[in-house]
Amino acid sequence: MSDLTNQDAKAIIENQIETLKKRNKEPEWMTKLRYKAMKTFFEAPHNDPIIKNPLKFVVKSTEEVYPEIKSLDDLPPEMRSLLDRLGIAEVEKKYVAGIAVQSDTSIVLNEFLKTWREKGLIMESMEDAVRKYPALKDKFMGLFNPAESKLAAYHTAVWNGGVFLHVKSGLKVPVPMHLFFLIQNSAMAQAPHIIIDAEPQSEIHLIEGCTSPVLVRHSLHLDMTEAYIGNDARVKLSVLQNWPEYVHTRPMTRAVVGKNAEFINTTVGLGTGKSNVSNPKYFVQDGGYAELNSIILGQKDFYVDLGGEIHLQGAKSHGLNVSKSVIMDRSHVITRSVIQANAPKTKGHISCDALILSPKANMETYPGLISSVDDSELSHEAAIGKIKEEELFYLMSRGLKEEEATQLIVKGFVDPLLKDIPTEFVIEIRKIIELAVSGGM
Amino acid sequence: MNNILLIRNLHVAVENGNSKKEIIKGLNLEGHGGEIHLVMGPNGSGKSTLALSIMGHPRYGILDGEIKFENEKINHLSPDERAKRGIFLAFQHPEEVEGVRIIDYLRMLVEKVRKIDRKESYDFVVARAKEVWFREEDLNRYINVGFSGGERKRFEILQAMLLDPKLVILDEPDSGADVDSLSLISLKLREMRESGKGILLITHYGRILQHIEKKRIKVHIMRDGKIVMSGGEELVDRIEKEGFAKIFEECGCNE
Ligand SMILES: Nc1ncnc2c1ncn2[C@@H]1O[C@H](COP(=O)(O)OP(=O)(O)OP(=O)(O)O)[C@@H](O)[C@H]1O
Ligand SMILES: [Mg+2]
User: Fold this and answer.
1) Number of domains present in the structure of chain B
2) Nearest ligand for residue B171 CA
3) Which domain holds residue B79?
4) Which residues contact A164 (CB under 8 A, 6 or more apart)?
């Protein structure tokens, strides 16, 4: 496959575009966008520390067919048990909340979503949304340009799956919405596209779980998220990732945070993927607030290069970028957070902490503060270190084994960043950390 | 009566990078259940080092001598093994453990170490916490993070109560505690002694003894890594009145 020529790749991509166009009954503007992106794919710059030749990931369609999924009961057993482990069934019982499990092109809706739809909450598969809402034309790829990189172009050409979330002006959704990606159709590249459109004064919390250990047939995951946070809106986006060892992920995220709006984005990366390179960007207007929290669990040979730019564009806007990395085995984690102040009376803070549990693991952190005004307050702090001997001794002196004490300290290290994650998930996250720590010891 | 703690000719050095410095220099001590042994001595005389060595701190290496707990040598046991056998240390400077909620931690302790059922551990912890003035909501805080001096001392006592050890070592449980906390801690010490525990109490002041029967108290004075004088409760008064310098001069301990 590595011998794919540009010509071969073009043929494969064209074929996929045609398939998607027919399958989704796409409007013309979308098909045009795809073809335009395909052209730029071959010229666009490519700069990735791990993936040297993106052509390697342009894969041919296969003819496997999966059964259609209408409700949670139709899920493949491994997916069901995963959701059970994550306590999803529990969550649903408890809050009667919205779970939308997405399988390629259809969203499994439950009662909650149906009720809220009448009040102005739209949660649609991106394919349906593109067909139903012509206005999406302005939002789709509104924050990205396919020509900026090969991966962005490839995503645009072959995107499939993903959701459109629209919250009507003033609508406040009181419980978190859960969205799980179930990517089954191996004919397609894994490139879901997500648009969050929160109108002024609205409130919502979206929990995205990307995890499908058995179903993943591809080794590159290229999702793209565009978030439009209206003035005075409050949006939380919590992303839980649990990738299998062979997966490279290149999430692309951008958000515009309106006046006096708030956007809190927390990403918890728990799997031992192969590599994860991303550079989310947030543009914050007057009085707005953007918070980017990341928990990284580096295991095995996982290579993580996490950027994160917060652009304080409006007066009195505010940004916070916090990362906590736990590094084990031979993993390599790099964090490069940037806060750029372009307006008066802005404030920004970067905090990068890393706990190193293995002498072979590697951590680099490069906080960047850029200011073009003279009255912004920007600061950063970074701490990389091992577990403190005194802390370990304190806990062991109470009868906890070294392993138990270490687990407790590691869980405690990440705990402050889990404040917005529902308890059921926090419990599962803690279990994953315990296992990882034991495995690494 | 069986020894709960027997220390013979103990030499301990602290390791800092490549250098080793001897701090405990041939110390002997013997104690039984139901007794309270006070260790007093000037700052830097090695009291905390003694306590930490009994607990098995990895930084304090035993050069010579032995520490026996219930007639068994424990020199080479890890701290958690010592704890499981029934040794407890209330620290002079308790560590902060960021991100670990007290309630989760204490439940884990009583479940793992004392084998209390998961269903009962919550009520068990909360009830005992109340005895030392921690409210239920306080238990959602992180271990020692942002605690006042007195709160830290009460939290150490709480852990001793929950783990129910046989030997309780307390390193200045009175420093930083206000008058009422002091009285509470003294009462708890009395309860522990009455239930047959051995107590090794490091302190600078006699006030912590207010609720304890005088005849149960033995006092040891440390100077430069050794116990240079032992006696009854009356030694405490003498120290408070005269100070260490004078006592050391009179006993010829300054050789
Ligand atoms: N980790 C260490 N590194 C270097 N020196 C140490 C260390 N621990 C103890 N010491 C030294 O050993 C000596 C005894 O210290 P220790 O803390 O045992 O005294 P102490 O009797 O408890 O004093 P205080 O009454 O002030 O609590 C001191 O000189 C101290 O500086
Ligand atoms: Mg001391």
Assistant:
1) 1
2) 2
3) 3-92+197-251
4) A122, A123, A124, A125, A126, A128, A129, A130, A133, A136, A194, A195, A197
* Residue in chain A nearest B145 by alpha carbon: A412
CATH at residue B82: 3.40.50.300
Average model confidence (pLDDT) across chain A: 85
Assigned domain for B147 exists: no
Whether B226 is in a domain gets the answer yes
What number is the average pLDDT over the span A168-180?
A: 86
Given an 8 Å threshold on Cβ–Cβ distance, is B99 in contact with A400? no
State the residue range of the domain holding A426: 387-441
> How many beta-carbon contacts under 8 Å exist across A and B?
76
Q: Is residue B54 part of a domain?
A: yes
Place of tokens 């590599």: A275
pLDDT given at position A86: 56
pLDDT at A181: 65
User: Does the C-beta of B53 come closer than 6 Å to ligand 1?
Assistant: no
- A33-75 per-position pLDDT tens digit: 999 999 999 999 998 998 888 887 776 555 444 455 555 666 6
Q: What are A250-274's pLDDT values in tens digits?
A: 999 999 999 999 999 999 887 777 8
- Asked if B56 and A401 come within 8 Å (Cβ–Cβ), the reply is no
Could you give the CA distance from residue A217 to residue A188 in angstroms, rounded to a whole number? Answer: 10
B146 part of contact set with chain A, CB < 8 Å: no
**Rounded to an integer, what distance in angstroms lies between the CA atom of residue A48 and that of residue A52?**
6
Q: A160 and A31 in one domain?
A: yes
- Our count of domains for chain A comes to 2
pTM summary value: 0.88
In a domain, A381, yes or no: no
Interface test with A, best of B89, B91, B100, B102 (most A CBs within 10 A): B100
CA distance B4 to B8: 13
